[in-house]
Amino acid sequence: MNKIILITATILTTAFAKAQNFSKSFVSTGLSIGNFDQLTLANIPVSYNHQVKGLNGLRYILGIRQNLAFGQSTYTINNQQTTIDDISSYSVNVMFGFEYISKRKLLFGFTIDALGVNTGTRSFKTIGTDPIYKINPEYTNILLGASNDRGTLNSEFYLGYRLSEFISLKAGLAHYLITLEYSNINGKGCVQSFSNIPFVQLQYSLWQN
Known about the structure:
Layout: H1 2-15, E1 22-36, E2 39-52, E3 58-77, E4 80-101, E5 106-120, E6 123-125, E7 133-137, E8 140-142, E9 153-162, E10 167-184, E11 187-208
Antiparallel strand pairs: 1-2, 1-11, 2-3, 3-4, 4-5, 5-8, 5-9, 6-7, 7-10, 9-10, 10-11
């Protein structure tokens, strides 16, 4: 899935790399909520959207996204599968993406978290006969590609409809990564969990130019 995300982003970025001037821009925010397999995701994006000159309907997106995830997920720590019941992660990431709006007001696009910071709940857990583990979300988030990604990152692919000049309704799939750090008296390490979470989002344009 991560390879698909990077390939899609590369193709679109290359295709529109020559279009550096924008004829219209606006600032938007919204609320996105999703849930799958006992993990709930909510996020608030704030983005600066640029309409590309000569390519009607295409917009380049750059912004900040706040992600809140909570619930439970299954990890493999030292070859032992365990469920973490009290996952809580709050991240603030820089995101980028593209969006296309048709003349019929239908839209589709994607946004990808690239870099940010994260905090969350620290928990203590006994796994098998090992000494007690201290477990917490990794603090630094960075997009490096596939299994090299670090921290907590969200990538969203969506379809939607522009209800008015200021309001859009979107639905799609969030590919969500949470990296947990663990440690005990025997050492430390990290494990990752990838979740594909369906979501809906209401977006509102705050300012237009």
